[in-house]
Specification:
Layout lengths: L4 E3 L2 E3 L5 E6 L9 E7 L6 E6 L6 E3 L7 E6 L4 E6 L8 E8 L16 E5 L2
Parallel strand pairs: 2-10
Antiparallel strand pairs: 1-3, 3-8, 4-5, 4-9, 5-6, 7-8, 9-10
Length: 122
């Protein structure tokens, strides 16, 4: 089953930074828009950010605007999510997934990975 591998999560203090990576070894990312999602305990999965195939278009959920940056390296077959000024409410499992373009609905995405845990706590 084709899927992404997310990495880079961990425990960080409030105000800290992390860089998440979304990589694929069995297919080429440049053919897809890539979205980052997160799911906190007891909450539904929400879209965090998305980047178009070329990287020329990005979007962010309001709560992370100005703090998170999504970018991609098609030569490395990887999409990144740079997170800064992290807060406890950013604690969640973070996932990446692919789509034909950046959609609002999570249902349009596929190749979901297992996720990487981000915990923001002092």
């Amino acid at each position: 089953q084709l899927q992404f591998v997310e990495s880079g999560g961990g425990l960080v203090q409030p105000g800290g930074s992390l860089r998440l990576s979304c990589a694929a070894s069995e297919f080429t990312l440049e053919s897809y828009a890539i979205g980052w999602f997160r799911q906190a305990p007891g909450k539904e999965r929400e879209g965090v950010s998305c980047i178009s195939r070329s990287g020329g278009y990005t979007n962010y959920v309001g709560s992370v605007k100005g703090r998170f940056t999504i970018f991609r390296s098609n030569t490395k077959n990887t999409v990144y999510l740079q997170m800064s000024s992290l807060a406890p409410e950013d604690t969640a499992i973070y996932y990446c997934a692919a789509a034909a373009q950046c959609y609002a609905s999570n249902d349009r995405y596929f190749y979901w990975g297992q996720g990487t845990q981000v915990t923001v706590s002092s």
